[in-house]
């Protein structure tokens, strides 16, 4: 996970920094906020603290014995974003003035700096501001443009803070360039629903949380992510390409539309195994059934994971395939059989508690992870699903990179590798 220090300086556009913080968080970044004294006159530190879940940093002299704040922050940050940046801050930074926490952090860091100016259109046009921005740009700062439009003072012109969405996409782009070799990850998530008639369907308890959390974690690692999801109440993570489906057949088609361009396939969906042989065009009526019994003929759905992991890719690369298993009994034995049957490179086993339903309806989960040689590689016990997703994404990246190197070397398609 990348760390961003968001520095907020005293402009009327300060309130937009709250939205920026929220959007950057949605991208999976860990954000700490630094405020100058004048910024605190526009927005309270409490608002940033509540969203960032970190204290706001504002005092140069507020340090404990074992830590010096500006040095710690300077080292912690992978990127420093100054938004909004006032004419005063820009002038101070251009001249190396370090009379507050921001000035000190900026001098002490080796992280890249991105700066989004915000000021009155006349000030923005002033030669001093233009010279200072040029100076900072020459030093390697990423100076963002401003927006044109109506300003708080009633003037119209250049100098408005760039929209938080645009700043967010610049940050994402910056890390994506850094990670341009990271893979395309295709993830299935949520349940499928299989119609019986226009008002009834077969489905299961899947919430989709794990698949969505994985999509967010891979995005934060800089990967290109496609999330193919059955119906859930969740929002597609920012920057992830979402494809909505309902039935297993639709999910199968969506997966195969994209799988040839995928490097990693993660099958987190709870695909319904059987569907109605004939889904009725009209609502099935009770009185049409014999002796208060109803017989529903079910046929098997395609196994999407198998159709990917066992596909003949010819000269193309086979994606690294990760499956999930939710078992109520003989968990390990069933899981190991699944690795073989489904030709998997990694399997994540959930033990479902028959009484409590755990992990369904719980925010926590416990998983055991096996590789393609059926070796237990990791156990994660009773942790929040988001934390599990982060650990899993890191592990999958490591295993995938080994798999990709080995398959390139051996030119052997479809084999399982033990990558330790
Ligand atoms: N899976 C799939 N398509 C199906 C059924 C399952 O892609 N039609 C995938 C799931 O996404 C999961 C893995 O296969 O990654 C294992 O799913 P699971 O339901 O545990 O196994 P099944 O193959 O359905 O076997 P069983 O229900 O007998 O345990």
Which features characterize this protein?
420 residues; alpha/beta; Rossmann fold; 2 domains; 5-stranded parallel sheet; 19 strands; elongated
Structural features, described:
This protein is of the alpha/beta class. The protein folds into two domains: 3-178, Flavin prenyltransferase-like (Rossmann fold); 184-410, Rossmann fold, CATH 3.40.50.10300. The protein is 35% helix and 24% strand. It contains 14 helices and 19 strands. The strands form five sheets. The chain has an eight-stranded mixed beta sheet, with helices on both faces. The protein has a five-stranded parallel beta sheet with strand order 2-1-3-4-5, sandwiched between helices. Strand 6 and strand 7 form a beta hairpin. Helix 1 packs parallel to helix 3 and helix 10 (209-220) crosses helix 14. It is elongated and about 85 Å long. Bound molecules: cytidine-5'-triphosphate (CTP). Cytidine-5'-triphosphate binds at residues 248, 267, 269, 271, 273, 301, 303-305, 323-326, 338.
